[in-house]
C-alpha cells in the first residue's frame, strides 16, 4: 500500500529523519513508536504532504486518498464544525458531514463555534476532517495523547472501526499500551533512524516465556545474584528486594538456574514466566542506542 | 474557489475586519469635515482673536474641494495604516496557527486560498471606500456647496480601490516572506510611505502603482495617458506579487524546525 525508501529530512544541520525505509500493507494498523523528538511526527507530516523530504521515495498505491489527523489539529475557531467541513469539502463529493459528526460524537455540537471546544472535541473533529474525503489511508499523529480515558477509548474504538471498514491506518504514539493493543506491526524510530520493526503476533509468540521472575523467601545475597546473572543464557536482569527478573536467551538456561538454586539451597516463594512487554523492548533498545 | 471565498467573507465578518475597516473609513469621512468646518475654525478663532471668522475660513479653504482634499490626505495616511493593521495577519496567522493543514490535506488549492483572501479584502475595501467618499462628498456639500462633480468622487474611489488591491497583494506577499504579523505591518507601511516620497521626488511615480496615490487625490480632469502607466504597472505588479505569494506558500514547509524542537521538548 505504502512504500517508503531512504527518507531523509534535515533542518539546518540537524537530521530529523535519517534514511528511513518501511512498507505498510493494505488494511493493516501500523504503529510508530519512539521518544518525543524521535522523528515520528516529521515522518507522518512528510507522508501527509505538509513537509517536503530532502531525499527519499514515497510510493502510495494508485488512487489512494490520504487523510491525516495532526497531533494538535488547528481549526478556524470562528467557524462551526459543519461550516468548517463544508469548507473542506469545497464542492467535491465527500462522505455525509452529518454522518461523520455522528460517528465522532459531535453531531449535537455541529452549530457551536469550534473556538469553545475542548482538546478532546477538537481531536474528534480532526478525526472527522481526516475521514471527510473517504481516504483509503489514514495517518494519525498521537491520536490519543492528552485525552482523558473516555476520549482515548472513543478514539481507539474509532481506529478499530476504520480497520473493519478496510482502511489502512498509520499512527504514531508514545503510549505503548495503545500500540500494543491496536497495531498489527510496529516500527520503532530513534533519532530519525529505524530501530526495529516487528510483527506483533510473531513478536509475542517469539518472546513468550523468556522472562523468568524468581521470588525468593528472603533477599538473595549479592554473590547469588551475580552468579545467576552471569550464566551464559541470561540476557538482562532486574532486581528488586526479594524479586529477581531474568531475561533468558533460551529455555535451557532455566534448568541451569533451577540447578543453581537447588545446589545453593535458596528458598523460593514462587517462579513465574512472563512475556516481555513492548515497553521492556522499547527501554532496552533506547538504552542500547 | 467558491468555498474559499465564503470562508474569507465569514472571516471578515466574524473576526470584525470588515467592521473595523467600515467604522474607520466612515469615521474619517465624517470627522474630517467636522474638523475643518467646526473644530478648526473655533480653535483658530480662540487663538487669533483679532482675526474675523470670515478671514479664518478663507485661510482654511472651506470649499467642498478644499475639505475633500484634506479628507483624501487623511485617508491616504490613516486609511492605509488601517488597511495594513487589519490585513497584516492574513498570512502569518494561518502559518503560525497551522490552520492551513486541513485545507491543504483536503486538496484546497493554494491559489484559491490566496486569491480569495485578495479578492474579498479588496472588495471590502472598495465598498467601504465608495461609501466613505460618497459620505464625505454629501457631508461637505451640505456644509458648504456642491462644487465637485460626483464622477470625480467615483473616479477617486476607483483609483484608491485599485491602489488598495495592489496594497493587499503587497501585504500578502510580505506576509509569505516574513511569516510575522508585526513585521508585515511595519514593512508594508514603511515601504509604501517611503516609496511615495522617493518616487514623487524623482517624478517617477506616474509610472508606478504608487502614482495612484496622487491620482485618486486629483480633482482635475484626466487624460488616459495621465493614469495609463500607473494603472498598468499596478495591475502587473499586483499579478506578480500574487503569483509569487502562491509559489511561496506552495513550496513552504508548513511546520518549522522551531516547532519540531518545541514538540520534542514537550
Q: Can you walk through the features of this model?
A:
The complex is a heterodimer of chains A (289) and B (266). Helices cover 35% and strands 30% of the residues of chain A. In chain A, the strands form three sheets. Chain A has a six-stranded mixed beta sheet with strand order 5-6-7-3-8-9, with helices on both faces. A four-stranded antiparallel beta sheet of chain A has the order 11-12-10-13, covered by helices on one side. Chain A has ten helices and 13 strands. Chain A is of the alpha/beta class. In chain A, helix 3 crosses helix 4. Chain B has one domain. Chain B has helices at 2-14, 17-47, 53-60, 64-87, 90-96, 101-105, 110-143, 150-178, 181-201, 211-215, 224-250, 257-265. In chain B, helix 4 runs parallel beside helix 8 (150-178). The interface between A and B is large, with 40 and 33 residues.
Q: Helices and strands in order, then pairings?
A:
The complex is a heterodimer of chains A (289) and B (266).
Chain A (H helix, E strand, L loop, with lengths): L1 E10 L2 E11 L4 E5 L6 H9 L6 E6 L5 E4 L11 H9 L7 H7 L15 H13 L5 E5 L7 H16 L3 E6 L2 H7 L2 E6 L2 E7 H8 L3 E6 L5 H8 L4 E7 L2 E6 L3 H12 L4 E7 L3 H11 L1
Parallel strand pairs in A: 3-7, 3-8, 5-6, 6-7
Antiparallel strand pairs in A: 1-2, 1-4, 8-9, 10-12, 10-13, 11-12
Helix pairs in contact in A: 3-4
Chain B lengths: L1 H13 L2 H31 L5 H8 L3 H24 L2 H7 L4 H5 L4 H34 L6 H29 L2 H21 L9 H5 L8 H27 L6 H9 L1
Helix pairs in contact in B: 1-7, 2-3, 2-4, 2-7, 4-7, 4-8, 4-9, 7-8, 7-11, 8-9, 8-11
Any low-confidence stretches of chain A, pLDDT <50, length ≥5? none
Protein chain pair with the most extensive contact, residues per chain: A-B, 40 and 33 residues
- Count of discrete domains of chain B: 1
- Intertermini distance of chain B: 38 Å
- Kindly provide the radius of gyration of chain A, computed on alpha-carbon positions and rounded to a whole number of angstroms: 24 Å
- The strands making up the biggest β-sheet of chain A line up spatially as 5-6-7-3-8-9
Instruction: Catalogue the unreliable spans of chain B.
Output: none
User: What structural category do the secondary elements of chain B indicate?
Assistant: mainly alpha
Q: With helices defined by DSSP (H or I, 4 residues minimum), what is the helix count of chain A? A: 10
Shape of chain B: elongated
Overall pLDDT confidence of chain A:
81
Amino acid at each position: 500500500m505504502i512504500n517508503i525508501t531512504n527518507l531523509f529530512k534535515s533542518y539546518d544541520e540537524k537530521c530529523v529523519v535519517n534514511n528511513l525505509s518501511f512498507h505498510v500493507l493494505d488494511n493493516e494498523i501500523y504503529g510508530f513508536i519512539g521518544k518525543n523528538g524521535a522523528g515520528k511526527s516529521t515522518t507522518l507530516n512528510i507522508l501527509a504532504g505538509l513537509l517536503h523530504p530532502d531525499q527519499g521515495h514515497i510510493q502510495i498505491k494508485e488512487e489512494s486518498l490520504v487523510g491525516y489527523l495532526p497531533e494538535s489539529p488547528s481549526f478556524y475557531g470562528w467557524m462551526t464544525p459543519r461550516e468548517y467541513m463544508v469548507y473542506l469539502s469545497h464542492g467535491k463529493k465527500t462522505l455525509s458531514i452529518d454522518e461523520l459528526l455522528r460517528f465522532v460524537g459531535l453531531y449535537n455540537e455541529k452549530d457551536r463555534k469550534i473556538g469553545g471546544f475542548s482538546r478532546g472535541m477538537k481531536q474528534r473533529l480532526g478525526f472527522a476532517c481526516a475521514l471527510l474525503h473517504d481516504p483509503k489511508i489514514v495517518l494519525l499523529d498521537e491520536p490519543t495523547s492528552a485525552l482523558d480515558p473516555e476520549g482515548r477509548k472513543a478514539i481507539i474504538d474509532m481506529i478499530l472501526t476504520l480497520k473493519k471498514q478496510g482502511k489502512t491506518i498509520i499512527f504514531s504514539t508514545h503510549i505503548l499500551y495503545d500500540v500494543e493493543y491496536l497495531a498489527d506491526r510496529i516500527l520503532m524510530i530513534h533519532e530519525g533512524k529505524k530501530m526495529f520493526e516487528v510483527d506483533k503476533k510473531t513478536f509475542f509468540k517469539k518472546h513468550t516465556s523468556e522472562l523468568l521472575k524468581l521470588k525468593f523467601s528472603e533477599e538473595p545475597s549479592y554473590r547469588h545474584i551475580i552468579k545467576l546473572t552471569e550464566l551464559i543464557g541470561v540476557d538482562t536482569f532486574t532486581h528488586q528486594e526479594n524479586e529477581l527478573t531474568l531475561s533468558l536467551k533460551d529455555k535451557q538456561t532455566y534448568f541451569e538456574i533451577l540447578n543453581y538454586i537447588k545446589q545453593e539451597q535458596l528458598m523460593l516463594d514462587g517462579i513465574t514466566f512472563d512475556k516481555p512487554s513492548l515497553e521492556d523492548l522499547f527501554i532496552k533498545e533506547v538504552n542500547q542506542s | 474557489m467558491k468555498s474559499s471565498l465564503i470562508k474569507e467573507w465569514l472571516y471578515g465578518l466574524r473576526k470584525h475586519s470588515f467592521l473595523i475597516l467600515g467604522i474607520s473609513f466612515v469615521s474619517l469621512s465624517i470627522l474630517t469635515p467636522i474638523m475643518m468646518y467646526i473644530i478648526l475654525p473655533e480653535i483658530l478663532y480662540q487663538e487669533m482673536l483679532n482675526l474675523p471668522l470670515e478671514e479664518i475660513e478663507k485661510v482654511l479653504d472651506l470649499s467642498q474641494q478644499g475639505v475633500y482634499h484634506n479628507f483624501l490626505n487623511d485617508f491616504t495616511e490613516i486609511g492605509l495604516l488601517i488597511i495594513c493593521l487589519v490585513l497584516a495577519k492574513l498570512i502569518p496567522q494561518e502559518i503560525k496557527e497551522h490552520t492551513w493543514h486541513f485545507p491543504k490535506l483536503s486538496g484546497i488549492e493554494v491559489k484559491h486560498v490566496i486569491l480569495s483572501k485578495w479578492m474579498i479584502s479588496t472588495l471590502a475595501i472598495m465598498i467601504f471606500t465608495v461609501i466613505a467618499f460618497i459620505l464625505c462628498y454629501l457631508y461637505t456639500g451640505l456644509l458648504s456647496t456642491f462644487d465637485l462633480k460626483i464622477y470625480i468622487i467615483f473616479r477617486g474611489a476607483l483609483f484608491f480601490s485599485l491602489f488598495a488591491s495592489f496594497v493587499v497583494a503587497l501585504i500578502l506577499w510580505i506576509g509569505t516572506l516574513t511569516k510575522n504579523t508585526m513585521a508585515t505591518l511595519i514593512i508594508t507601511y514603511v515601504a509604501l510611505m517611503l516609496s511615495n516620497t522617493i518616487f514623487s521626488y524623482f517624478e517617477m511615480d506616474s509610472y508606478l502603482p504608487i502614482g495612484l496615490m496622487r491620482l485618486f487625490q486629483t480633482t482635475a480632469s484626466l487624460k488616459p495617458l495621465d493614469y495609463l502607466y500607473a494603472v498598468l504597472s499596478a495591475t502587473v505588479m499586483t499579478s506578480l506579487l500574487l503569483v509569487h505569494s502562491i509559489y511561496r506558500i506552495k513550496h513552504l514547509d508548513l511546520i518549522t524546525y522551531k516547532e519540531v524542537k518545541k514538540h520534542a521538548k514537550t
